[in-house]
Amino acid sequence: MPKRSAEEKIECYERKIRKLRERDIGQHRRIRVISSDSSNSEGLEDADQPELSLKNNAKDLGNSSGQCPTPSIREPEPMPEPELTPEPELAVEPVSRPETRTEKPLEPLALEATSLEQNPNDESAEPELDPELLEALGESTSDTPEFGERIHESLAKLWLPLLVKGLPKDKKEKILKEYLIPDNCRLLQAPKLNAEISAAVIDSVRNRDKILVVHQQQLGSGITAINRALNTLLSEDDKKNAIQHLSNACRILSDSHTVNTNSRIKLITPNLDKNFLHIVQDAVRDETLFGNKLAEKIKAARAIERQGLQIKKTNPKPSSS
To answer: Where is the segment annotated Disordered (predicted)?
Structure first.
């Protein structure tokens, strides 16, 4: 049975070839990747030439093993060898670091929402009231004074000095004589104190009332000057003369304003310390009665007083013999 023995030998060789191929593939997988190019080329040389390595291994096995001698009838047909694809190089994975999350900047709406969450008691978070409820509550009163429309700069330059210093005595008397109380509007004159009441009150009250009478009389003269201007515009249509009456009225009223300011100062100064009277007497009014720089003047006066005490010569006490 030569044919059967030949087939058995072929199967024996095929088994050995498969074992050799499996061993070569296992060796190829165990190849370590080295960074240098020279080592890669040396380590993968057998993988690039699998046919040569298989033939050499088969020859070694044939010589060493006597179980499957070389057939004398015919050589086995070459089997189609499977293509060996080189294994991908093993890359060294970098050490993974914990990811740091970079938060994106919040948009304005997101910022507003987070601020409301953090500050739930914020006033801006309170709901707005209904307009009808606000109208029912009424208008709010502000501590800061509200001012009206600006006047012409030329007019402001005329009245501001009068509001600080007032009218000179001679000019004041001249203007007041020019604007006597009208005969048909006598109530513009300051009313006199009844004789019975004057006899019943003390002297300080009567003196205080006399001062108020002068102020009230001056106020009546100012109103009279305004009526003169209106009368001129209604009857004569003399614009220049009307403006002159209005200017005199503003002068009288500005001086009256200054007189009331001085009366308030005289009312307050007797209640102050005598050491500070010289500071208050030289003060010039602005938005406040004694000026905005009163605190600085007081500090400066105290500093001068301390320096004076330091340089003051002390007389030695006479020694008792």
So the answer is: 24-108
Tell me how far apart the alpha carbons of residues 53 and 17 are, in angstroms, rounded to a whole number. Answer: 11
Per residue in 204-255, pLDDT (tens digit) is 999 999 999 999 999 999 999 999 999 999 988 889 999 999 999 999 999 9
Distance separating alpha carbons of residues 213 and 220, to the nearest angstrom: 11
Do residues 258 and 277 share a domain? no
> Angle 239-268/203-235 helices, nearest 10 degrees?
160
What is the C-alpha to C-alpha distance for residues 208 and 311, in angstroms, rounded to an integer? 46
Q: What is the DSSP letter of 95?
A: P
Residues 206 and 290 in one domain: no
Please, are residues 229 and 242 in contact by the beta-carbon 8 Å criterion?
yes
Among 27, 45, 64, the domain boundary falls at 64
Tokens of 206: 């009567």
Specify the pLDDT at position 94. 46
Tell me whether residue 93 is in a domain: no
CB atoms within 10 A of CB 53: 19
Per the CB < 8 A criterion, the answer to whether 260 and 285 are in contact is: no
Residue in this structure with the two tokens 């670091």, named with its chain if needed? 97
Cα–Cα dist 247/167, whole Å: 13
C-alpha–C-alpha distance, residues 62 and 106, integer Å: 78
- The pLDDT value given to residue 51: 46
Residue with tokens 């007797």: 270
| Domain carrying residue 19 | 2-64
